[in-house]
Structure formats: structure tokens, C-alpha cells
Amino acid sequence: MNQTLRGKTAIITGGSTELAAAVSLELAREGVQINLCGRQKDMLDMAANAIKADGGICLTTVSEIESLENAEQIVQATCEHFGAIDLLVLISPFWSGGLIHNHNVKSWDLVINANLREPFLMTRSILPLFRNQGHGEIMAIGSDSGMGIFQQDGAYAVAMHGLKTLMELIHIENSEHGIRAHTLMPGLALNTPFDADGKPNLTTKDVSEWVNWLLTRPDHLRRNGPILV
Fold first, then answer.
1. In a domain, 173, yes or no
2. Which helix (H) or strand (E) holds 36?
3. Between 20 and 30 A from 72 (CA), which of 10, 36, 38, 96?
4. Do residues 207 and 227 lie in contact, with contact meaning Cβ atoms separated by under 8 Å?
5. What pTM did the predictor assign?
């Protein structure tokens, strides 16, 4: 039987994105309590209002995760508000690339920090809790840039390959503690189901349904590697 998500609590990062809004709504409809974290309050509020209008439960946290202390504060505040944490969903918030020989250094640092350093800080802060309680699931939603090499992907490609490796390490180091790690590597996900020529797009709804499907797999099933969507 599939496991239920009802009554579980999730922290979702990258919350100021359209993908985060879709994923949080999908999980809230399954009965998950959400703490949606991101930089832009207006985007967080929009997503939270949609969840609440649909009958779900959503807390928002405006945050820039720049230190382990920032990440630990989010974990602690979520525990205090909901009483527990069961799920951590890491969403990569933005792309920026360039040719390596003239790559903008500021962009490089921003992309690596948002898409790789922040996931490390969040997993670093939550894994002791998950290991102590004997269960927990971590889902990273990266990009197909982590499954191949594309010219001018620059810092984003490096971050996505690093994210994939981070999740593999989390899996091999924590599976015996009842912790599952999932990695989705979608292409560009849009809100519109069809392009200008009438061809189907990969949508944020599609990705959110994959998240739901993976998180509801029975515990005894063998884990797959990164899934290309």
C-alpha cells in the first residue's frame, strides 16, 4: 500500500517560485502542513493564500539562508509551530549561466549559494533531527542540467551536479536511519500546458505530481537514482 502524507509536516525551500507554489499546493491537498520558505514575501503570500483557500495549512517564512544558524532557526520554528517535521523539499530557485572564461563572478556566487549551499545548510540542519526520530524524507528538485553538460550552463550546471552528489551522499549515509532521499531532475517546467505550436509542455503541475508520487511510495521499495522528468 502507498504511504499516506496526511498529517505530515514539510519545509519547502525556494518558495518564491512558481514550482514551489505548485508543489506546496499539491502536498497540502494530500494533508501536509507546509512551511514555505523563500525570499519574496509577495510570492510566498500568494502561494499560501491559494493553499488556505483550498482548505490547506501553510506557514510562510521570509528567509535568505546564509548560515547554518539561519537554517536551524527555520527547523526549530517549524517544530515549535507544527510539533514535528517529516519532509524537506528543496527547490532550486533560479538559473544563471555563462561561458566559463568570462562568467560573471557575482552571478556564479549567487547561483552556487542559492542552488547548492542552501540545500547543504538545510540538510545539515535537519538530518540530526531525522536521524534521532528514525524517519524523514528529503526531496531535491534540481534540473536536467545535473544529468548532462550543456554549453553556457556555467554555475547552474556545477550547482545541479553538486546537488545530485549531495543527495547521493545523504542517501548512502542515512538510509539505515529510516531516511529516504529523492532527486527529481526536470527540464524547464511551465505553467501553460501547451506551447505556441500546440505541443505539450512539461508543467509545474506535472512536477508536483511526481513529487507526490515519490513521497507516497511504500518504504520497502528499492530507491531509484535521480529521476529525469
1. yes
2. strand 33-38
3. 96
4. no
5. 0.95
